[in-house]
């Protein structure tokens, strides 16, 4: 901190508290709902202070003992599928985007901007609209019911490429110059200079892409026909009985909270890496 | 392009090799299906694809003859601008304050990023729990304070609801990237300015904001793309385009027609239209807004 | 595609004959959209069937909501790896039927299998929805519910109404609503699935056409007629009720469902399937009654229209798969299985034998209100009341939602809204007809 400004500090806390109250309110409600009985939740209005069913609901959610889950796959297996998918997607996206952004920013070659825009366009056609042909491709490549089918089609990321491009453009030219002078090849420069410098961007992207991969619903639903390959969000959605049957909202919410714990862990861990990356570059 | 590196590497084959993985993935899993989708926009077929016929631009003509489709351009414009502008402004505010080394910063940051982890499916249900005119907690509170909240029949309230829901989703996202951007601004610069006597407000606008501009530009483009393409889930969960068609943004109709109504030709044609609009918007942003960005 | 799968199954059979006992189990893939407790019901049905015989194994896979499941089925069909059985909601019936060669009619599957199959044993108002005009059953009704009327007995008492006398006619509903409002009730009457309850089922209940050609059963050139005098009159009545705060709109589809068990709304027209939910969550005495009607209309009450989903058999599978499907459907239609399912879920039994079995078991005596839905359906249907078969039906329902919302918001009259809905809906029918030319 630069100087002591008590008023500003007070303002900071106030703004942040209000921000947290608004942004985290739905998460808070989810938690509250997970500690009541299903009947209490549907009485208008829903209670906003936690109830007394915490232990009962979470045990039931984890063991699948209470009726109303409607699902065949155990929660543990689904969390595992989600974990593998999320890691592969996050790491895969970051890896290939680093390479692509590096190529686009630090080289001159024909069709350079064409590639950039081609990558960008992938953001502009939601998968729901091209589902039939995309499914056919996966099916023809025999990737149904595989981790590959769950992850590879989602690995192309314009967001990551674009972010790295932005960051690379801010890297001082002197560094690249120095590398050239030293006789280091481009990949050396990439490995020893660019990637370490990009630590905070990588950390931010890792959080986002991990959560993106973790929360996949529609794509896994389509490319898997074995329920043992279902990730956790499908499990949550199928507890919500569409139509008339009664929902065990308390269990739905408890499972949702459980599903949010690994991403929360990732968020906390990545923040440590932020600080570390910052300290490293603060030479 | 305004943003270019002065120092570059030379290699005839390396850049292409570096691009190959991403190019391969998007070639097979995006462009090939996308090409088929574009083809579909010139066809009319049944859901199963057992009877297909070419109809030229008829799908497009049909769309522009539909008055409610034209009106949804306006609805979409209002929605997208609101989501992008307010989403960025609010998260920048929060990120700036969270970046100050105060006690509990880690807790604040975690609590502000964590909501991004709420699965869209669950988020839809939560918004219902909060705003449903019957059992909604927030709706109840609003009614008690005299505001008659009924987004089922009040188009403006419905619009407000989906804007809020879309912004909420993005605040965590924008906040995270602003934090990353802020943390890469050398503290020494800020310290130097403080020693010179510049107040925080001044420091922000003369040092922080310009240095943050690559991130801001990134978020501006991404938020607009998000508002145009990724928000149909929110609309589906909250209002389904209603009441009437008051919240039927363009991409919602694409989703509805392609996914629920199984009108593949129509939804493909609409996708082509939206894609064209956003490509133009993005090119404009790169051409004009990027000039102001400090790299 | 046909020859590829033939070669594949032949090779598999050849390999199997070397490594496994002569009688390998045939796997039947069933994709469904049943979540929550209904998902457990599906799993139990499948287990019961698999345990009862050795030749076939049904594998049930949850594929999301109804639209998601249908999309998955279509995507799989287009890629050549469709399941054997697909559960499709009732509004998708025309799409399934119009698909040339994508499905095999259930009637044909059952007949070819050689198993005993008697179409007349099925409740005509239930199976009729999924039957072609020539009598061939196209899909197997699976989870069918119908539109009934719920009312809050405690609220009635507090308003000075007789809690044991359910309103029978719409006039009585309006009177009850007025008394409820006078006693301070904020939401006397509301409805779920407004198109289904107030127009589709409403029309059939009064033996009036919703669309030409027997509500579309007769061909893709059917056109909508739900802006006829009776329907306009009814929506006008609802419009007046809305203006006086007697009818409160609570959202599309089944968003209004929660307002009844929570006590917020005193009267609800909705699905019979809601009963289980109400039983569990309502903290007051409630009553179940048939859908109200206009007593001055000749022929009312006729029968109501079902909602829910049915099981379709996809084409392009090997012959022994179809035998397995037929055997599974036989199991599902048996009176014992039907009766158990009906008691457990509240969905309608699809055979008269199942209904009688349930009656004999005393179930209806122990569970008042459980037979209301069935009684509305156990009668002979007419051409106008058998069911609705319209293309792009999902879009038509959305159009009806949108136009009626203008009425509740005071922006259009009943006649204007219905006329507009019919015009827009007919455009959808024309599109469907053009896209599915024979």
Walkthrough of the structure:
The complex is a heterotrimer of chains A (283), B (295) and C (438). Chain A contains 15 helices and no strands. Chain A is mainly α. Chain A has two domains: 6-63, no CATH class; 77-279, Orthogonal Bundle (MetI-like fold), CATH 1.10.3720. The two termini of chain A are 18 Å apart. Residues 66-70 and 278-283 of chain A have low confidence and may be disordered. With 295 residues, chain B is an all-alpha fold. Chain B has a single domain (58-292), classed as Orthogonal Bundle (MetI-like fold), CATH 1.10.3720. Chain B has twelve helices and two strands. Chain B has a two-stranded antiparallel sheet with strand order 1-2. In chain B, a hairpin with a 6-residue loop joins β1 and β2. In chain B, α9 runs antiparallel to α12 and α11 packs antiparallel against α12. Chain C contains 19 helices and nine strands. Chain C is an alpha/beta fold and 438 residues long. Chain B binds chain C through residues 44-51, 53, 128, 132-135, 152-155, 240-245, 256, 259-263, 265, and chain C through 67, 70-71, 74, 77-78, 95, 98-102, 249-253, 255, 258-259, 262, 264, 392, 394-395, 398, 401-403, 405-406, 408-409, 411, 431, 434-437.
